[in-house]
Amino acid sequence: MFFHTARRGACSLVAAAVVAAGLLVGGTSAYADEDPRIEQYRQALAALKPLVRQPVCDQVPEPGRWLDAGEPDEGADDVIISAHRGALTLAPENTLKSYEYAFAYGVDLVEVDVQQTRDGRFVALHDSTVDRTTNGTGNIADLTFAEVRALNAADYDPWRGGEYDGSQVASLDEILDLARRVGGGLELDIKGSVTEEGQLAELVGRYGLVEESIFNSADPRILVAEPGARLIYNRDLWEPGFLIYEIGQVFKVYGSRLDEYSPESVAAAHDACAVVMPHAYDAGPDQEVAQFQLARSIGADGVQTNQPALIVGAAGEAVDSRIVVRRDRTGDRVCLVNADNGLGFPGKSVHLAKGRGSKSLDLVTGNAGCVTAPGRNWRGASVSFAGDDAVHGSAGRLH
């Protein structure tokens, strides 16, 4: 499992639990034992800790490094990559195709915005209303599962009128089934419409994905239903190192903005055997690789990204590909797919050559990583993909 740490060489979730208990948390303060929020957090953690079932932490804490880390920790050798709302630059966010494309690049997790419909079903949608990304209107909590699934989840720019127009809002069952098939997990960002967090955890358990997944919530019902569940804590700027260490006894994953982390806070989280995976996307799309590299330089174990292909390439974790030729009534379809899980890569250039290269053509893959070959006169041609930073090259032949 990827949740290990290495050593040297959306709002706070505990805060949410404290607020739920009627305790006010907010503002900034000095890193001092007398800060009243520290005791409030400790009370919230004490209520959750008996419910947690995690492996014994064998890390020897070094409190001095929580104030001055010196040389930063080294993050996990196998970089943890979570694809935010799937591969949202390749397909409409929170659609099944978006998640398929993310897993094609071999990411560990896909981040799923979990909403609950009026009849108690779980779906993937970021907003509390369906207005922004679909052709419908209204609060998702007021709509039935069937009503949500009848909507067009690509009814917004730049997807409106394109090849993904008509996509459905993904059901959580679909995403869980996909993750189980490819050996991945879910980062579950649980939204306000969700009222049955225990049932949500049980659903993840039925798919056998509790160990592979993480829950962005402090609701104790998750741990009651699945004591082995891993919770995410979204870092703020005020927490002193000793409190980060204490939070890490319960919350085994640290997330949120990169600018809220330092080598010292990462060291404190690692001392609790927690992993650190901040956002890479907050500084904008052009800065994701630089943000990923900065995160790794201070000891982060991975990141959450809007562009999984870029981060997979920057991490040096390119995946293998293969070329598959499928014949249907429209002709030969050339598909570039992940060699292990069969999921396609859109937007890749494949090269056709015939007659010892005297006749050649470049085509760009589309939906599902496929493109239609130009005609029968190209049968027998070689097909190749040169490879790039994220996907190794491969070759095949038209039948």
Automatic annotation (TrEMBL):
Alphabetized SUPFAM superfamilies for the sequence: PLC-like phosphodiesterases
Taxonomic superkingdom: Bacteria
CDD domains: GDPD_AtGDE_like
Domain GP-PDE: 79-315
Signal peptide limits: 1-32
Record keywords: Signal
UniProt xrefs under InterPro entries: GP_PDE_dom, PLC-like_Pdiesterase_TIM-brl
Protein name per the record: Glycerophosphodiester phosphodiesterase
The organism's taxonomic lineage, starting at the top: Bacteria, Bacillati, Actinomycetota, Actinomycetes, Micromonosporales
